[in-house]
């Protein structure tokens, strides 16, 4: 069945406002759109991009070694999961004026040249992810969405646009 992808990035499970908001809205949106929910908790740990992975990214698929394939396994899985999603809900806190490292790790694993991003003849990136409805629930202490020190939402818009997702809405999760 088609699914809504629900990502969470808060380091805490208990009392997390971004998890509470994203969870409630994932359920509502999935019911509205008739979708199942697939949840991925990014805080549980993702690999950082390393040398073998970068080599693998730039090696044609049929020439990759076993080490490349093994190193790209998580990235391949996350890319497939994103490309098949029909809607996206993200629960994310502001950490040090920006995204938690867990979310950046996910972004570095799903931005794949030749897969989620293809460069056209003019050298411009064309995102290949489906332009699905995307809602981002941002939890913060004092760094409000759109404020001078908010480096999370401008970055997130740039990143999601880059991989092909344009239909993005931000909402504050309840504040501390
Ligand atoms: C490591 C860390 C860094 C944080 N940095 C910021 C910050 O720069 N700006 C801010 O407004 N809140 C900051 N906070 C507060 C969190 O954004 C806030 O507690 C939020 O509710 C956490 O999300 P959660 O409730 O989903 O866990 C920080 C919290 C932690 C744990």
Proportion of beta-strand residues: 15-25%
CATH class: Alpha Beta
Ligands: flavin mononucleotide
Helix-strand makeup class = alpha/beta
In total, how many beta strands? 7
**CATH fold-level label:** Rossmann fold
SSE ordering: EHEHHHEHEEEHE
Outline, from the CA principal axes? globular
Can you summarize the main beta sheet? 5 strands, parallel
CATH superfamily: Flavodoxin domain
- The low-confidence runs, each spanning 5 or more residues with pLDDT under 50, are none
**Domains counted in the coordinates: how many?**
1
Overall mean pLDDT score? Answer: 96
Number of helices: 6
Intertermini distance: 37 Å
How much helix, percentage-wise, in residues?
A: 25-40%
Describe it:
By secondary structure, the chain is of the alpha/beta class. It has a single domain (3-172), classed as Rossmann fold (3-Layer(aba) Sandwich). The protein is built from six helices and seven strands; from the N terminus they run βαβαααβαβββαβ. It has helices spanning 17-33, 51-57, 66-71, 73-83, 101-110, 152-163; strands at residues 3-8, 36-41, 87-93, 117-119, 125-127, 134-139, 168-172. It has a five-stranded parallel β-sheet with strand order 2-1-3-6-7, sandwiched between helices.
Secondary-structure blueprint:
Elements: E1 3-8, H1 17-33, E2 36-41, H2 51-57, H3 66-71, H4 73-83, E3 87-93, H5 101-110, E4 117-119, E5 125-127, E6 134-139, H6 152-163, E7 168-172
Parallel strand pairs: 1-2, 1-3, 3-6, 6-7
Antiparallel strand pairs: 4-5
The structure holds flavin mononucleotide.
């Amino acid at each position: 069945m088609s699914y809504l992808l629900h990502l969470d990035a808060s380091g805490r499970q208990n009392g997390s406002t971004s998890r509470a908001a994203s969870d409630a809205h994932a359920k509502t949106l999935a019911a509205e759109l008739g979708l199942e929910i697939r949840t991925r908790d990014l805080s549980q740990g993702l690999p950082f991009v390393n040398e073998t992975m970068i080599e693998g990214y730039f090696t044609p698929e049929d020439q990759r070694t076993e080490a490349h394939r093994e190193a790209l396994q998580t990235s391949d899985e996350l890319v497939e999961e994103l490309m098949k999603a029909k809607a996206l809900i993200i629960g994310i806190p502001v950490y040090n004026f920006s995204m938690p490292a867990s979310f950046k790790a996910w972004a570095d694993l799903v931005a794949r040249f030749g897969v989620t991003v293809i460069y056209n003849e003019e050298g411009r990136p064309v995102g290949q992810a489906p332009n699905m409805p995307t809602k981002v629930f941002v939890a913060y202490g004092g760094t409000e969405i759109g404020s001078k020190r908010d480096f999370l939402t401008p970055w997130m818009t740039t990143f999601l646009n880059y991989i092909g997702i344009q239909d993005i809405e931000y909402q504050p999760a309840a504040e501390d």
